[in-house]
Amino acid sequence: MQSKVLYNQDGHQWIVIGRDPEKDSHVIDTNEYVIINRGHAMLLDPGGIQIFPQVLAELAKYVRMQDIRVIFASHQDPDICSSLAMWLDLNPAIKTYCSWLWTGFVSHFSTGAVITLNPIPDQGMRIRIGDEGPEVEAVPAHYCHSSGNFSLYDPTAGILFSGDIGGALVPDHHASLVVTDFEQHIQYMRGFHLRWMPSTLALRGWTQRVRAIKPRMICPQHGSIFEGEMVGKLLDWLDSLEVGQWKDSAAKTDTRAAA
């Protein structure tokens, strides 16, 4: 897998891990993110069982396993967090967070280690990185696409982790990590959003909350990252969509970008 530092200032870092050229063709490509603050780390959507060794190896370049203090799961899908038990086998002290709605479901990913989850209430909550680090905010994103779903905003870096919102099935690992041509990038997002986002009202609510936050960067779990003017373009495009309906255009488009 490949990794890149997205933000690094005053002991606070954001790193993305993804674009695996050696993954099996049937495995959906995902982005895993880690926030590091003065040696303490928070892992966002740690990924599925099949990519655990690759993610672990790349993460080890930046942080020790014992310094991972928190894991955040945006929702319940296996590509999001089926590797949870493996992380907890290596470091049982990690605090894990996901929506209260999915705690009983995510626990089924256990392969021996007991997965004890800290439930996030529907209205969201603040989560501290490490013992004395800064707080990040779980932002409600319900029905986008999961009924119990959260984004995560880091006010220190001005970065929003959006989960599947803004996700795209990019052609291959050579695709740009950062979106440079929004109109060209739409083709990789459209099919998934039309098919997997069930509520236009919920999607509008999410974009409204995000506009109020004013992030400088939006990082989805699949595809490429939006920064600068591309953040506004993404929000405008999402506001233009009518989702939650069967559409032939969505049915004919490869929607494997996420699930």
Describe this structure in words.
Helix 6 packs antiparallel against helix 7. Residues 253-259 have low confidence and may be disordered. The protein is α/β, with parallel strands linked by helices and 259 residues long. The chain contains eight helices and 13 strands. It has a seven-stranded mixed beta sheet with strand order 1-2-3-4-5-6-7, covered by helices on one side. Strands 8-9-10-11-12-13 form a six-stranded mixed beta sheet. The protein has one domain (2-251): Metallo-beta-lactamase, Chain A. It has helices spanning 52-59, 78-81, 84-90, 103-106, 182-196, 200-213, 229-240, 248-251, and strands spanning 2-9, 12-18, 32-37, 40-44, 68-72, 95-99, 117-120, 125-128, 135-140, 150-154, 159-163, 217-220, 226-227. The two termini are 21 Å apart. 46% of the residues are buried. Strand 12 and strand 13 form a beta hairpin.
Helical segment count:
8
Largest sheet: 7 strands, mixed
Query: How many individual β-strands?
Result: 13
> What number of domains?
1
Q: Which topology does CATH recognise?
A: Metallo-beta-lactamase, Chain A
* CATH homologous group name: Ribonuclease Z/Hydroxyacylglutathione hydrolase-like
Spatial gap, N to C terminus: 21 Å
SSE arrangement, N to C: EEEEHEHHEHEEEEEHHEEHH
